[in-house]
Amino acid sequence: MTTFTGHLTDAQAQRLVDGTLLEAEADEVLAHAGDCAECQALAESYRVLGDALGEALGALEVPELPRDFTAGVLSRIDARERAVRRERRFATAILAAVLVAIGVTVVAAGAGTWAPAASRLAGGLGSAGEVLRLGAGLAGTLLSALRLQLALACAVLAVPLLFALSRLIPSARAELV
């Protein structure tokens, strides 16, 4: 099954000229292009444009690269890699300094200051883990019970959204005047 309808699209005319038609469309496109003067003119315009572009590009002079072009590119790559390594070392040094500062602060404050806070944090994390474990067990049951309602809600939200998005897609072929 193909998507060919009416006249050739710009893409089909270009593929016809380039000889790269898709298998699914080749027979119908070739048959239509053989009978339709409008589509023959469209394909011919692409053929002429391609020939003119080929001639124009062929007439351009190819500039000669400087002798040190490759060496210059490689030196810029090396410089960038050195800069990245330097930035990583700098970031690692900052992280190490921060960790040392935290360690010194914790030791200076003494266990009486930070131990109760660490204990509360550990208890809070344990409670959060228990809530997540219970929620995970409940989520499967809840989703199973509400699957029809969820599917309907998704459809009600998705259909208008997809329609709005489809209006943003440009047409496959600009109409010929």
How would you describe what is shown here?
It contains six helices and no strands. The chain has 177 residues and is mainly alpha-helical. The radius of gyration is 34 Å and the shape is flat.
What layout of secondary structure does this protein have?
Elements: H1 10-18, H2 23-35, H3 37-59, H4 69-109, H5 111-145, H6 147-166
**What is the molecular shape?**
flat
Largest sheet, if any?
none
Instruction: Give the strand tally.
Output: 0
Category by helix and strand content: mainly alpha
What is the helix fraction of residues, given as a range?
A: over 70%
- End-to-end separation: 29 Å
Give the C-alpha Rg. Answer: 34 Å
Average pLDDT for all residues = 86
Count every helix, treating DSSP H or I runs of 4 or more residues as helices.
6
- H and E string: HHHHHH
Percent of sequence in beta strands: under 5%
Q: Regions with pLDDT < 50 over 5+ consecutive residues? A: none
Q: Which features would summarize this protein structure in a list?
A:
177 residues, mainly alpha, 6 helices, 80% helix, flat
Summarize the structure.
This protein is an all-alpha fold and 177 residues long. The chain has helices at residues 10-18, 23-35, 37-59, 69-109, 111-145, 147-166.
